[in-house]
Amino acid sequence: MRIGRAGRLLAGLLTLTLAVTGCDGVSMEIGDGLMGGGLAGTDPVIVDPSGTVVSTGAETETTETTETTETAETAETAETGTVTETGKETGDAGGEPGDGREAGDGQAQAPSKGVVKMAVKGWTGYGAEAEVLAYLLEKKLGYIVERRKLTERASWEGLENGAVDVITENWGHEALKKTFIQDRKVAIDAGPTGNRGVVGWYVPQWMADTYPGITDYRNLNRYAHLFRTPESGGRGRLLFGRSSHVGNEEALIKNLNLDLRVVVGDGQAALIRSVIRAQRHRKPLLFHFWNPHWLFGRVKLARITLPPHTAGCDTDPGKVTCGYAEVALDKIVSRKFAANGGKAYELVRNFTWTNEEQNAVAADIAVGGLSAEEAARKWVETNEATWTRWLLSG
Questions:
Q1: What pLDDT sits at residue 121?
Q2: What does the alpha-carbon distance between residue 254 and residue 250 come to, in Å, rounded to a whole number?
Q3: Which of 21, 56, 86, 293 sits CB 3.0–4.6 Å from 32 for a disulfide?
Q4: Of the candidates 26, 137, 132, 154, which has an alpha carbon nearest to the alpha carbon of residue 79?
């Protein structure tokens, strides 16, 4: 069958659309990284909030599109956006990460000191961090920030081809680090963000306050009856976000002899609704989740203590008996930007904050009714002592 020029053009447009479409989900999901052996029969992996599967072997990137909404009980905030030909993103009225606002919108600006090309990912936590940095770059240092919404792989490739200067939040990606930092020497690690990627099992804080010892995995069988639902087959339900998520839950339940069953839900938005209902109506809930995430800025959650993670404890997916390792998130920049970025690079390098700070900004964007720029400005105005240090050299 012969495909005409128009057909080839359409295919190209569809490919471009898939390449730049973001999502606000963690596709395990997380975070806002998932370490360990995946479900039985899969290789040990980390999965970041973009849905990228990260392993110590070949880098794999999922093509699945996850939900573009995160929601509180009745309100849903759509996170959509497109990338313009110049690389700037135009978003919806909600002011999503990289919402198309350029330095100079609504107020006079001093002459620009240059352009900083920032990769933007699809989850709100990344957007919170990127927007705070962009706000400081634009309003305090006089740069223009081009926000480029790209897939994980395309972001790293951009460090090499000049399309990207900064990836503000990196979840592991050891294979990509080896390729672009060690082998090709086109990028460098610009230091930690201060965030710790934490994946695990959670219950609402009120359950931890009400049921003694429930946050110790060794006591879960005593309380398993609280989590029973029709779909859990007489066992306690461990709610998982979506079937495409990767995790160690099946192996942990089997190997730790827990009276639980994994029940796969309808995605991140539905999971968040369940968590908020469990908090508001004091309904028992045990679920898989990750931090940083804006939900922690709205709901008090308690993490279940699983056996500690040790090196190699999750090498065999079927024999996993340990919890997930925490991931120290870091910033990646192009080598050229590190050499020539001046004050902009110094700001990125010095930037560090906590999960709680990121969650607060992300919550303002996701469910607080603020645009990304408004949420960033709010944080900047109330944390001057923190960001002033980032502007200093050294």
A1: 87
A2: 6
A3: 293
A4: 26
